[in-house]
Write a structure and sequence with these properties.
By secondary structure, the chain is of the alpha+beta class. It has 15 helices and 15 strands.
Length: about 475
C-alpha cells in the first residue's frame, strides 16, 4: 500500500490503480496508440559494425502475430497500459513440443506475482499466475517481465509506476467530477434550506410534503419550473453560484501533474490546460516531438533491452544481433521535407558537400564516377591550395584616409632612424619599416610627390635632416 506523508487518508483505496481517471487514460491511450508507429526490428552487425536488418527474423514475425487470437499491436497496447498503470507487464512464452517459442500471451499483472526463496538465494525462482482459485507455477524462462523505469523500493523484483505518486491529484480530479455531476444530477444549483416564515411551526408531515414538492418541480427534467408555496417561506442557498463553483483551475493542476509525470504534454492528448499552452507557446508538432523524446523513445529503448535479454536468446546466438524499434518512418520525428531539401541545396551551392552527399540527403542514389565526389565551388570563391592558406601574407602598405601632410621645412628625421638596419647611401645604422625605407628612397630620388604620399603613410617626426643628408650627398 502506498502512503503519503502528513496524512493518514487512504487515497489508494479511493482511487484504485488510477485507470478509472480520464486524465490517466488519455495519456495511457496516447502511449498505446503511438508506440507501434515504430515497428520492432531485428538486425545483424556486419564486419564494419553496421546493422543490417533481417527482414524475416522469427522474433519479428512472432511479435507481428503473437498468437491466433490477437495481433501484435493489441499485445503491445495491453502490455504498455499494464506497465504504465501498475509498473509491471508480463508475457507468457508458449513452447512447441521441441521447446521452441511459438506463441506470446499477455498476462494481467494483477494475476502474476514473482516468487523467491526466503533465504534470497535466487532473485526470482518462479512466477505465480493466479487466473482462478488455484495458482499456476510459471518458470522464469517462460515469462518476459517488463518493469517501469525504476524498481519498486518495497519489492525490487517488481517495477514501480509513477501513477502511485499522483493519487492525491487523481483523487482531486475525481472528486471535482463527482461534485459537478452531483450538482447537475440534482438541481443544477447548490442545496437549499426551506424554512417557514411564520410564527407557527408546520408538522413533520407538512415539512416532508414541501420537500418532496420542491424536489419534484426543480430536479431532473422539471428543473427550472416555478414552485408556489401556500404559506410564507424562506429559501436559503447553501453554497455559491455556478461561477463561484468553477473547478476548472483546480482540475487543471491534476492535468498538469499527471501529464508531467508521465512525460506526455497535456496538449497532445487534448487536455484543456495543454491546449491553452499551444496558443502562446510551442506548436502541436513540437509537443508531439517532446512526447516522443520524454516517453515513447525511452520506453522503447528500455523494452528493447528487456526483449534482447529475456526473449531474443530463444532464437539463437545474440552476440552480434540487435533488437530495436525502427523510428525512421515516424512522421513526427522526420525533418520537414522542404526544409531538408533547402538545407541540402544551400550546403551544395556553398561548396560544403559533394554532389553524392547532396543526393544522399534528399534520398537519391549516388552517382557513379568522379563527378559524384566533386564539390561545386561558388563563382565568388577562389579555390586555394592548403599550402598557400598556411603561407604568411605578403606585407602591404596601409595608407591612411587622412589627407597627406606637407613635407616639414626642417627638423627631426633622425628620431625615426635610430634603429639597427644599414642604409648604405646614408651610412647610418637603421632598422626601418618598409614604408620608411620607401620614403627615404623617394627623397634620395628627389621625387617629392612620392615622398609626400609615403610621408603620410609612415608619418615620421621630421624630414628636413633626411632631405639635407640626401641633397648634401
Amino acid at each position: 500500500m502506498f502512503s503519503f506523508g502528513r496524512t493518514s487518508y487512504d487515497y489508494a483505496r479511493e482511487v484504485g490503480d488510477g485507470s478509472r481517471n480520464s486524465i490517466v487514460m488519455a495519456c495511457v491511450l496516447f502511449i498505446c496508440r503511438t508506440f507501434p508507429e515504430a515497428p520492432p526490428r531485428v538486425s545483424q552487425l556486419n564486419r564494419d559494425n553496421e546493422a543490417v536488418e533481417i527482414q524475416n527474423h522469427p522474433l519479428k514475425l512472432l511479435l507481428n502475430t503473437p498468437n491466433t487470437f490477437y495481433s501484435g499491436r493489441l499485445l503491445w497496447a495491453a502490455t504498455l497500459a499494464d506497465r504504465t498503470i501498475s509498473g509491471n507487464a508480463y508475457w507468457l512464452k508458449v513452447r512447441s513440443s521441441v521447446g521452441r517459442v511459438v506463441e506470446l500471451w499477455w498476462l494481467p499483472s494483477t494475476m502474476v506475482e514473482p516468487k523467491w526463496p526466503d533465504d534470497g538465494s535466487e532473485f526470482i525462482s518462479y512466477y505465480e499466475y493466479k487466473p482462478g482459485i488455484d495458482p499456476i507455477r510459471l518458470e522464469t524462462r517462460d515469462v518476459v517481465h517488463f518493469r517501469y523505469d525504476m524498481f519498486d523500493p518495497k519489492n525490487i523484483r517488481k517495477g514501480y509506476s509513477p501513477i502511485q505518486s499522483l493519487l492525491r491529484e487523481i483523487f482531486t480530479d475525481d472528486e471535482g467530477g463527482n461534485y459537478t455531476a452531483a450538482m447537475l444530477r440534482n438541481v443544477g444549483v447548490p442545496p437549499v434550506v426551506i424554512s417557514p416564515d411564520a410564527d407557527s411551526m408546520p408538522t413533520e408531515e407538512e415539512l416532508q410534503a414541501v420537500k418532496e414538492r420542491y424536489q419534484q418541480v426543480t430536479t431532473g427534467a422539471n428543473r427550472g419550473q416555478a414552485l408556489v408555496m401556500t404559506a410564507p417561506t424562506k429559501v436559503q442557498i447553501l453554497g455559491f453560484n455556478p461561477q463561484q463553483m468553477d473547478l476548472s483551475s483546480l482540475r487543471d493542476v491534476a492535468e498538469e501533474r499527471v501529464s508531467a509525470v508521465l512525460g506526455i504534454p497535456a496538449a497532445v492528448v487534448g487536455l484543456g490546460t495543454g491546449l491553452e499552452n499551444t496558443k502562446v507557446g510551442a506548436t502541436m508538432k513540437e509537443m508531439r516531438e517532446q512526447a516522443w523524446e520524454s516517453n515513447i523513445k525511452p520506453t522503447q529503448d528500455l523494452m528493447a533491452d528487456e526483449i534482447r535479454t529475456q526473449l531474443l536468446p530463444e532464437f539463437g546466438e545474440i552476440s552480434r544481433t540487435v533488437f530495436d524499434f525502427d523510428r525512421s518512418k515516424v512522421s513526427v520525428l522526420q525533418q520537414d521535407e522542404n526544409e531538408l531539401h533547402e538545407r541540402a541545396r544551400a550546403d551544395l551551392l556553398a561548396g560544403g558537400i559533394t554532389l553524392n552527399e547532396f543526393r544522399e540527403m534528399i534520398g537519391q542514389k549516388p552517382l557513379q564516377g568522379e563527378e559524384g565526389d566533386a564539390l561545386y565551388v561558388p563563382g565568388t570563391v577562389t579555390p586555394t591550395a592548403q599550402a598557400d592558406l598556411l603561407a604568411p601574407p605578403e606585407p602591404q602598405m596601409t595608407v591612411s584616409e587622412n589627407p597627406p601632410r606637407a613635407l616639414p621645412p626642417g627638423g627631426k628625421i633622425l628620431s625615426i632612424l635610430e634603429r639597427s638596419k644599414s642604409l648604405p647611401s646614408l651610412g647610418v645604422p637603421l632598422n626601418l619599416t618598409d614604408e620608411e625605407l620607401a620614403l627615404i628612397a623617394a627623397i634620395e630620388a628627389e621625387d617629392l610627390e612620392a615622398a609626400r604620399a609615403l610621408w603620410h603613410a609612415a608619418a615620421p617626426d621630421g624630414l628636413e635632416e633626411l632631405l639635407d643628408a640626401t641633397t648634401s650627398g
